Amino acid sequence: MKAQAISNEYLTEALRGAEVRPSTARVHVLKYLLEQRNHPTIDQIYRALRETLPSLSRTSVYNTVGALQQAGLVRALTMEGNEMRYDAFTEDHGHFKCERCGAILDFDADLSAIGAAGIKGSVVTKRDVLLWGLCPACAK
């Protein structure tokens, strides 16, 4: 499901509010992540935006995503092995990966109960829940 279009002006202000310089690449990458919600890889972001931004390189996408991640506007998801995906929905939620089609879906999850119980002196800095199975379309 595609989210409603977000204005470049709104994104520019969001970037400034996070103390990130609002370059053209940063605005377009953040917009793509917010509107598509497809948990893309760096290569998928690059391929989706290269016609709109002909001067865009994979390196600039990688650096842009890194800056957005450092500012807390994007989170990285390690799906399997070294497969990195990116999500602009940074509130706690879980992810479901379809083993057949590869789709990654968000689901509501109360992750506040997941902590470091029994690990004396530890501090939890990140919570992730990843489930695998068949999405509704593939389960039919």
- The named CATH superfamily of the largest domain: Winged helix-like DNA-binding domain superfamily/Winged helix DNA-binding domain
Spans of at least 5 consecutive residues with low confidence: none
State the oligomer. Answer: single chain
Share in helix: 25-40%
Mean pLDDT, rounded to whole units? Answer: 88
Which fold name fills CATH's third level, the topology of the largest domain? Answer: Arc Repressor Mutant, subunit A
Number of domains: 2
How many distinct beta strands?
5
Report strand order across the widest sheet.
4-3-5
- Succession of helices and strands: HHHHEEEEEH
Shape: globular
Strand content: 15-25%
Biggest sheet: strands, sense, closure?
3 strands, mixed
CATH top level assignment of the largest domain: Mainly Alpha
The CATH architecture designation of the largest domain is: Orthogonal Bundle
Distance between the termini: 19 Å
SSE-based structural type:
alpha+beta
Structure description:
By secondary structure, the protein is α+β, with helices and mostly antiparallel strands. The chain folds into two domains: 8-87, Orthogonal Bundle (Arc Repressor Mutant, subunit A), CATH 1.10.10.10; 94-139, Dna Ligase, domain 1. The protein is built from five helices and five strands; from the N terminus they run ααααβββββα. The protein has helices spanning 8-17, 24-36, 42-49, 58-70, 136-139, and strands at residues 75-78, 84-87, 94-98, 104-107, 130-133. The chain has a three-stranded mixed β-sheet, with no helix packed on it. A two-stranded antiparallel ribbon has the order 1-2. A hairpin with a 5-residue loop joins strand 3 and strand 4 (104-107). Helix 2 packs across helix 4 and helix 3 (42-49) packs across helix 4. It is globular.
